[in-house]
Design brief:
248 residues; alpha/beta; Rossmann fold; 11% strand
Length: 248
């Protein structure tokens, strides 16, 4: 089993959850101090990379700089992802480290920590450094596909429904997730059907029971949907969410 060595005071649980689909696991520590202390007990051959995921850099930057240098001393070309919502202090860290055996990847200016940021931004950056990425075949190697004019693509789901597939933000609780979700903000005053579906999806995602008031309101609003196929799709999606059988 290979591991990503993770240090994160605020996002450790989310980092663990988003590692589940991968073939690696995480060794996670809730503070820079714990991450530094346990580094000496780590078998570097089991590690594929390091992730230090912070909301913001601490006022005292020395422990962070010390951790980065300690990682570099045992590293064998391992990537280190340093992630923070804010840039403050990053320049000072970069000016005071001398990494000879590691590749430092810095992520800043995050609006919120989503599952896609963890999977693509953090784990993806590590895996890209560790494993050679897949190179698609060149155009001349591909067999051309000829599409007759009589064929055309008709999407199964319309653009309104596809908004529901956007990633749900990771937040401490349901109320905070609702407050930062871009789909909720976009549809609150413009598309009540999508707004209600999205709110119920987030509610179930955060382990809350379905709200019967939302169901009553949704059924009333759904009657105003003019397209029968779209109306049936909305109703089916709501029933799946209500039964706890689907969330994104």
């Amino acid at each position: 089993m290979k591991y990503v060595y993770v240090v994160s005071p605020h996002f450790l649980e989310a980092m663990r959850d988003e590692s589940m689909p991968y073939s690696f696991a995480i060794k996670g520590y809730p503070s820079i101090k714990d991450g530094r202390k346990n580094l000496m007990y780590t078998n570097i051959s089991d590690i594929i990379g390091f992730a230090i995921v912070l909301y913001e850099l601490p006022n005292d930057l020395y422990p962070l700089i010390d951790l980065l240098q300690a990682i570099d001393r045992i590293s064998n070309g391992h990537p280190i992802v340093l992630s923070s919502f804010f840039k403050d202090g990053i320049d000072i860290v970069l000016d005071n480290i001398n990494l000879l055996n590691s590749t430092l990847i810095v992520h800043t200016d995050l609006e919120c920590m989503t599952d896609i940021e963890i999977r693509r931004g953090i784990y993806g950056s590590i895996l890209k450094e560790v494993y050679k990425p897949y190179e698609p075949p060149k155009d001349e190697d591909l067999i051309p596909v000829i599409s007759p004019d009589i064929c055309h693509y008709v999407p199964l789901l319309n653009e309104r429904i596809m908004q529901l597939s956007e990633d749900i933000p990771i937040a401490p609780d349901y109320a905070k997730a609702i407050g930062i979700d871009p789909v909720v903000e976009k549809t609150r005053d413009s598309d009540l059907i999508i707004y209600l579906l999205r709110c119920e999806m987030i509610r179930r995602k955060y382990g809350l029971e379905p709200d019967s008031r939302v169901k009553t309101k949704f059924k009333a609003v759904l009657q105003d949907e003019p397209d029968r196929l779209t109306r049936l799709q909305f109703e089916s999606i709501f029933n799946l969410i209500w039964e706890g059988r689907i969330w994104i």
